[in-house]
Amino acid sequence: MEKPPKAEKCGPFIEMVLDELNCNLDLHDKEKIENEEDLKKFPGHHGGLYIFYMKPDSESDLRYPVYVGVTKQSFKERFERHAKHGVIHEVWNGKFPRDVDGLGLYAYCTHYHGESAKRIKSILLDTFDFALKKGRNTIDISETYPAEWTKRNLEFPWDELKRIADGEDEEEEERKKKKIPSEKGGHFIRFLLDELNCNIDMYDQEEIKDPDDVNKFPAHYGGLYLFYMKPDPTSDLRYPIYVGVAKKSFKERFQRQAADNFNGILSKIWSGEFKFEGHGVYAVCTHHQGPAARAIKKLLLDSFHFPLKRNRRGQLRRELDTSEQLPAEYVKDNYGIPWEECLEKVAAAGR
Predict the structure, then answer these.
(1) What pTM does this model have?
(2) Which of 116, 194, 320, 348 has the most Cβ atoms closer than 10 angstroms to its Cβ?
(3) At what angle do helices 290-303 and 186-195 cross, to 10 degrees?
(4) pLDDT, tens digit (0-9, with 9 covering 90-100), for 194-205
């Protein structure tokens, strides 16, 4: 084996590494990046470690990694930049790969970000020769090394990789300890939305049971929204489970939440992947958009632990917590949530 080995010849081993890191390799594996419309399917709310690879067609098991990167922007924004003057631009304009036909571009988007992502990227670049990091304008598809054979013949820092993965688990647990479960903060979140002059009651008795129920939500504007659960339409108990911002319309965003079988909130609930008993899902659609919506979302995510996110193993963080909710005044007095500062930011954004 050459040193460093070409990344495209070690595709199966790189998949093994990402599997060890519990990355979801199948999320975009059948989605070829052919045009600007294709870039919209990538996450627009977070970034991290990503790898571009090529393969003959969407069903093929052959994957030739050609580039590894880390983005602080969202994957969608970073890939849009790649389309203007980067990896995607090179592929679309026929500049890469030279002398090899019939390959399409695809991407792994991982949940690793920050220092963990940088360390993994450094390990991969120290170990492999990625064509588009080394200035090569072609790739070698003459043979692909089996993963187990590569593992036996390649010096690879598995211990360091394990420390990165374990360290991310520990950081996640520490972050959880500092936050209130969002369901227990339901009264405070209601108080905050009242202070923000949101119409909480508009859809409060309209359970979202199936895709047809999504059609009642606004199709001409979007903004900050929350999904919550409650025992029945007339109950005053509300357990917030997710906060998001719809850039287009609420209806369009909720349709995506229903159709996406891996990350879609409504899909997780209807399929039974998110565990709850005797509760239905409802939504608050607010009038806050742009910087105001992002400020509110950031405050909520910084202060509360919402259950409908996946951990690094691809599992949902936890089941619905219907234990006793904390009074709004108690949360205000004991948790140091900078809600008044958030109100000021929202007011400034509206001026």
Answers:
(1) 0.56
(2) 116
(3) 160
(4) 999 998 889 999
